[in-house]
Automatic annotation (TrEMBL):
Domain HTH luxR-type: 284-349
A biological process term (GO) from this entry: regulation of DNA-templated transcription
Source taxonomy: Bacteria, Pseudomonadati, Pseudomonadota, Betaproteobacteria, Burkholderiales
Record protein name field: Alpha/beta fold hydrolase
This protein's UniProt keywords: Hydrolase
One protein family per Pfam: Abhydrolase_1
InterPro entries noted in UniProt: AB_hydrolase, AB_hydrolase_1, AB_hydrolase_fold, Sig_transdc_resp-reg_C-effctor, Tscrpt_reg_LuxR_C, WH-like_DNA-bd_sf
GO molecular function terms attached to this record: DNA binding; hydrolase activity
Length: 357
């Protein structure tokens, strides 16, 4: 279990499905798009996802949710196409009260994050895609349908059994370099994250997801990280995603796992790259480390070029209150004037979102 506490609540998607979401940590908001095989209560404790949650919660208000049919969200739902999965994300961020946030898409959550960022450009300040795909397996390789059918039938017949041999096949594909403890935890996560029937349904649906047409519509700064040895989502798909988003930064990771795990150098590198991209590595030190969450919000809006009235409207504060807060920030940041404060904030990684109110 991580050093942070999480709060679990429920949101309602546009079609009435109940979506469980959790928040942990403090700081600028970061949302992890839902993906397959999550359980808000379970993955919090595992050596697979627990280290990721802890590192990301250290400098962010991290928002996670279980997609429909998984974890603590409503199970056995029929609609699991791209639009329904985006509706889950929409419900979670609206219920969490987020107006603008950084968005992290992992694996199949990448297609969801891409679609959301394209459809809601004003809401996503930065996008991070980790071993993500825009095109499902059958979109990339239509000839693999017979293989997919065989694997889906195997899931339906054997995934719910006490014997983990069936699930171990998938664990070996996802995390071939896992430690015994990590592999065992992922085996168990497969069993508790959703029923065999729903896992069967998800496999067939996710293989046909396609958000590739929306890649050119993503306008926010984007970082794409991908493990060279990933066999679940090939490295070439990461390259395809990065090349389809204007000015996206592409960072290969030296790992054979689907997502880097704690204990390998790629895990620390991935976290560092994400923190640098989101600006929290620089912002976490020096004068910025002493700022309260509200002060960091003011700095973020200040760095985007908003005036006091615009900042006040964005945060629900009187313009006079904002003026006083900004003056205090000058002292804390050692800035003589507004222009100097903006320069220092931008050097620390603030202000990368879209300008305006």
């Amino acid at each position: 279990m991580t050093a942070f506490r999480q709060q679990i609540r429920f949101a309602t998607a546009s079609d009435g499905v109940k979506i469980a979401y959790a928040t942990s940590g403090d700081g600028p908001p970061l949302v992890r798009a839902g993906h397959w095989m999550t359980h808000l209560e379970w993955d919090w404790r595992t050596p697979v996802w627990g280290p990721w949650i802890e590192r990301l919660s250290a400098r962010h208000r991290l928002v996670r949710y279980d997609s429909r049919g998984c974890g603590l969200s409503d199970g056995e739902v029929e609609g699991v196409g791209l639009d329904a999965l985006v509706a889950d994300l929409e419900a979670a961020v609206d219920a969490a009260g987020l107006e603008q946030f950084a968005l992290l898409g992992v694996s199949q959550g990448g297609a969801v994050a891409i679609a959301y960022a394209a459809r809601h450009p004003q809401r996503v300040s930065r996008l991070v895609l980790l071993d993500a795909f825009a095109r499902g397996a059958l979109v990339r390789r239509p000839g693999d349908e017979e293989l997919l059918d065989a694997m889906a039938r195997l899931v339906l017949a054997g995934w719910g059994q006490d014997n983990a041999a069936f699930r171990q096949m998938f664990t070996s594909q996802f995390f071939p370099r896992a430690t015994p403890a990590q592999a065992e935890a992922f085996n168990d996560l497969q069993r508790v994250s959703c029923t065999p029937a729903h896992a069967h349904r998800l496999m067939r649906s996710f293989a046909r997801l396609d958000a590739s047409a929306l890649l050119p519509a993503v306008r926010c700064p984007t970082l794409v990280l991908h493990c060279r040895g990933d066999v679940r989502v090939p490295f070439e798909e990461g390259r395809f995603v990065a090349s389809g988003i204007a000015d996206a930064s592409f960072q290969p990771l030296e790992s054979a796992n689907h997502v880097p795990l704690q204990g390998e150098s790629a895990f620390d590198e991935a976290v560092q790259r994400i923190e640098e991209f989101l600006g929290v590595a620089a912002a976490g030190g020096g004068a910025f480390a002493a700022l309260s969450p509200r002060e960091r919000e003011v700095v973020e809006l200040l760095a985007r070029g908003l005036d006091n009235a615009q900042i006040g409207a964005h945060l629900g504060l009187a313009e006079k209150t904002v003026r006083n807060n900004v003056s205090l920030l000058f002292d804390k940041l050692g800035a003589e004037n507004r222009a100097q404060a903006i320069v220092r904030a931008r050097e620390a990684g603030y202000g990368r979102g879209a300008a305006g109110g």
